[in-house]
Amino acid sequence: MAAHRQVLLFLAVVFAVASLASATEWKVGDDGGWRAQFNKTGWADGKTFRVGDTLLFKYPKDNHTVIQVGKEDFAACNVQTNNKLGAWFSGNDVVPLDKPGKMWFFCSVDGHCNNGMKLVINVVGDGAAPAPAPVQPAPPPSSAPVMGYTAGAAVAVAGAVVAVVLAF
Ligand SMILES: *[C@@H]1O[C@H](CO)[C@@H](O)[C@H](O)[C@H]1NC(C)=O
Ligand SMILES: *[C@@H]1O[C@H](CO)[C@@H](O)[C@H](O)[C@H]1NC(C)=O
Ligand SMILES: [Cu+2]
Fold it and tell me: What pLDDT was estimated at residue 118?
């Protein structure tokens, strides 16, 4: 029985670590943060953003904003849009990437978007949902079953509960 418990506890820890490791917090602009003419940095190039990851926008509060919009408002720098998909103002903004597809952001301070303070990213899913992204090579058959962040976390919690219950 004791061995049984240890196995369950081990599995719970493995799943907890795996689900943590699968989520990345991307600091937008790295140490330079979210800043003027952001489009010139090429910061998003070559990065793979995944469902479950987050973006962290750091900037001096009141000097910039983070507004999520659709493709047309983004292209036109339509900062007066009534179709905001999200808006953040704290200077320390965490934006969850909760579904696959493109996400468009700009700064709504006068002139900033027109000067290039904008960011578009493509978020890829866990393989279940179709995403407009390059085809990834299939994982080798020997690897563990593909599991999304939420499923992994749920299994970790369930495993931990079972382990705790058996410990008493
Ligand atoms: C924020 O903007 C104000 C003027 O709008 C400027 O004086 C100040 O230096 C800026 N702060 C930072 C940290 O860039
Ligand atoms: C950044 O945005 C500005 C203003 O829209 C544009 O003139 C410039 O070509 C862009 N630069 C890059 C590298 O995309
Ligand atoms: Cu700005």
Answer: 98
Answer yes or no: is the C-beta of 116 below 6 A from any ligand 2 atom. yes
Domain ranges in the chain? 24-124
Q: Whose CA is nearest to atom 5 of ligand 1?
A: 63
d(CA 117, CA 130): 29
Q: Is domain 24-124 in CATH 3.10.310.70, yes or no? A: no
Closest ligand 1 atom to Cα of 62:
1
**What pLDDT is stored for residue 22 in this prediction?**
73
Condensed to tens digits (0 to 9), the pLDDT of residues 61-87 reads: 999 999 999 999 999 999 999 999 999
Sheet containing strand 118-124, strands side by side? 49-50, 118-124, 101-106, 66-69, 86-88
Residue 60, pLDDT score:
98
